[in-house]
Queue: 2 jobs
Job 1
Amino acid sequence: MNLAGYFTAPEWAVLSGGLRLKDSAERDPLRSLVARDLLQEEVCEQLLDRLGPVIGSPTRAITASLLGKRLSFLATGACLYAMSVYDKGLLMSLDNTVVEYGHDDGLWTSSMPISHSVALTYEAGEREAWRETIVQALFADLLKPLWQTFNRITGVSRRILWENTAVRVYSLYEKRMAKIDDPAVRERCEADFQWLMTQAEPALFGLDYNPLSHFRRPPTLLDEGQRSIRFRRTCCFYYLATEPAEYCSTCPLLRPGKKCR
């Protein structure tokens, strides 16, 4: 059974549409590699050097940050949406996850191909342990080794890479999942988000702190209190890969009276 077979047609339409999930058999053959291969220093350097000019990045560190930002969207979006909205598990690993890096005409075109031979479900009363298994695989077992490699090879701050991940999770739950109509599903999503933010142990991320709660800056009031923005703590360097410079809406460089760290 291919990956789509584990979901209903409407579920797969969402996952394969905006969240860009697809079966590994459909990977981009020219612009992809198995995630574990990226842990090899030479392979990682070659990828970053190839991708840099394509996305307009002047350094490996900036390329690593922007690629990490894209991978964070692809990995957390598909995995956590399936978990919270459909109550179905995608167990992602370095060996079953494919890193695509397609980028054309100034936009990312990459998807998240994975191979998945067994549907991950749970028995009655076992959802909390099931949820921990999915989250640990996603963050500690898949993303942490990639971020460590990017940091070792390019010097890009691990704080930047983890905040790239955190802001994608915030957006997923607070914006995409907030549009769900079913109150029972929305309640489950809210409960999962609350757990991720306040109760998920640092070990599930492979760290000594929970990055989702760590990077959660209080919103800053703007326009005399008419609107608020939750600015990032770190800068992802997107503005250094655009000409003229463009800034993310939550860039700390735009925060009144503050500079990024």
Note: DSSP finds seven helices and eight strands in the chain.
Job 2
Amino acid sequence: MDIFRLIQDIRRHLKFSFDEVDGWFDKDNGTLNFQPSNGGWTVQQILEHIYLTNFYLLILIEKGSKKAMRNYLNLDLNLEIQCYSFNKEKFEKVGEYGAFDWIRPEHMEPKGELNLSEIRNLISRQYHECLNYLDLMKNGEGLLCKTTMTVNELVKINVYEYIYFLSLHTQRHVTQMKNNELENIKN
């Protein structure tokens, strides 16, 4: 496995995902506050949910990166890189809106406590935080720590995969926001 290519691919995916999300902050109030007929979230609520989910995922990513860097002292990184195989297919469903049931914890549900400007700033910081972790673990160290991920039966994933998961989750909700916008246009 070319770990450097994986890191670059994740970096590109993050940029694409976060750039797409950022564009939604410039939408008109009608689009941002449109309530879809299925009773789902408005675009503004979805943006807040993205921030909240990233917040909690980044706590796990931070812990994982610290542990991975500590493990670097005791584990054979070259062996881990040689044995690693990234199963992209098992992750792809995470980025597809409606691909499977997703029961999110209550603390990741939007409460309307932040304004759009605050959410935009926080999401921008989260993007840079992800890039900093990729820079910190630039030689493959992110393989040296695995953490449980119960969503879509991913089981144990390494720190890079957690960052990719975060980016895929963002993509999932970009699709949801596009669906809202299309329904709003039709009405």
Note: The chain has a mean pLDDT of 92.
